Amino acid sequence: MVNPVLLIIIPLTGAFAIPLFGFISKYISKYISLISTLVMAVIVGSLIPKVINNPIIVMIGGFKPPFGINLVVSPLSLFFVGVISLLGFLVSIYAIKYIDDGDIDKYHLLFLLFITGATGVVLTGDIFNLFVFFEILCISSYALVAYNRDKDGVEAGIKYLIQGSVGSAFILIGIALLYGLCGSLNMADIASQIHSVNSPLLSLSLFLFLTGFGIEAAIFPLNGWLPDAHSSAPSTISAVLSGFAIEIGLYAVLRIVCTVFGATDILHFLAGLGIFTLLIGEISAFKQDDIKRLLAYSSIGQIGLILFAFSLGSPEGVAGGLFHILSHALSKGLLFLAAGYMIYKAGSREIGKMKGLGTRMPVTSFCFLIGVFSLVGLPPFIGFPGKFIIIKSALSTNQGYFFVLVGAALLGTVIEISYFFKLLQNIFSKTGEDKVDEAPLSALIPIIIMALIILAVGVYPEIVSRFLHLASANFMDRMGYINNILGAL
Amino acid sequence: MEFIENYLYYIASFGLILIGLYIMLVKDNLIKIIIGLSIIDTGVNILIISMGYLKKGTAPIFSRESLLPSRMVDPVPQALVLTAIVIGVAILALALTLAIVLYRHYGTLNVRKIRDLKW
């Protein structure tokens, strides 16, 4: 069996190998990130059949839990690593031509560290290790947002950095309080004894975790950094930030709330917050003229819906949330990547300047259309089954509160359709200029692959839905998680 | 008096965290905001260290027969703080780098004047 530690080691080694290869040529770095993410994807593929029955627990250094650091390779974490490596690979193909001047090697170094951090967060079973990987993810994303070193990028980068690092300080205080109360850093060990702790500090700790991870997850009052950071970063980085970085933050929030604290009583509050985030995101997106800002606000909306799905507290809802994470990663990744060259060819980020791109860049625009249709949830694209499962499971709770929230979510979707169609109308309006001026092949390949996956999974949702139901059942099974890890003694 | 004696470290660390937060919220100068961030980090580090601190405790060396476990200081928080310090330095370095680049673009470090990106 392939050791799952390789999922973290490969991108990390790649990142540190880049400066060495940089002595030969800095153009090699492009292929290092390409190969690392591809190898990760292959490892994920080979591990899937092994984790279906039982999660794999890797004890690093041979220390048995609750001592030492352990990795938990459950279907859920493998799903996340799959999304990370797939999107990372496609974005690396795109970056071959797109990131072509400046410090290419530094870009790829940070990109691989970013992938390492994201993978580590979902794999680890240790709360401090979670924090460390989370910081790797955050610090590399601060630097990547400011990668172009232009006015906007640096301003967005410093805003993101200040908000993000206050968040990480909060997380660290939360960890300190939790360690003081439980005397352990292992998530399963803390979870097994948290209900015997009776102290007001416990709620303070939960609140601090929620705020800290909530900043990265862009939950409503904490999302001030997101539109700036996602719109000022290079398009490849916007794609990964929107595609999985905020979802990783959300994963951390839910892992802490559901597994470590077992605080199912605040899920109603989180569901309301999710819908509030959705409405704020969609309404703000409605009045944007800047295509990347519009997509960034739309990400806030989608993250709200995913939070709502997770907060339903039923395996069905979590499965819907996971499905929506996959669909959002692919659709929003596609939209940002397509927007990258559309902005380049139109010479502006303003939606009004995008007129006629439909005839000038037929393939890119067509794929963009598929991405939009999928995002708003039209069948037969991948967004439809995701939203469908979420709404169905919300209605099956038979609670008036959730019915109201579903109504608000549908209203949000209507707003979403209206602004996306305004965008499409601009792109596909005719200007008489019909000289074809398509994006380069290295950009078209990932965009087309994403469009094909969106279509394929949309037509046959069974490809992934069985695995996702397994993953969500596994995620909801708190006692199973504890026993699995502590039972490995 | 006993209360202060018992909780001195907690009061001090939360005091530092609150001072840091206050600086970050009130000050306009970016460098001062970054200093506030660094003060928060220091406060958090003291908090973690004090979690495992024992009065008159020593390092946990198990080969010393005379040393009882009740006299040992918990080494885990110290290892955590070591990591947290390194992370804090990385953030500080990156923040100052970005502040320099920002100054080159805008000619000012006043955050109220740096507002090209409105939301």
Number of strands of chain B: 0
Task: Give the helix level of chain A as a range of percent.
Answer: over 70%
Largest interface: A-B, 35 and 33 residues
Low-pLDDT windows of residues of chain B: none
The assembly state of the depicted protein chains is heterodimer
Question: DSSP helix count of chain B?
Answer: 3
The total tally of domains of chain B equals 1
Q: What distance lies between the first and last C-alpha atoms of chain B, to the nearest angstrom?
A: 50 Å
Give the beta-strand count of chain A: 2
Please state the average pLDDT score of chain B.
87
Helix content of chain B: 55-70%
Helix segment tally of chain A: 20
CATH class wording of chain B: Mainly Alpha
Strand order of the largest sheet of chain A: 1-2
- Per DSSP, what share of the residues of chain B sits in E-state strands of 2 or more residues? under 5%
Averaging pLDDT over every residue of chain A, what do you get? 89
Beta fraction of chain A: under 5%
Class by alpha and beta content of chain B: mainly alpha
Note the overall shape of chain A. Answer: globular
Query: Helix and strand succession of chain B?
Result: HHH
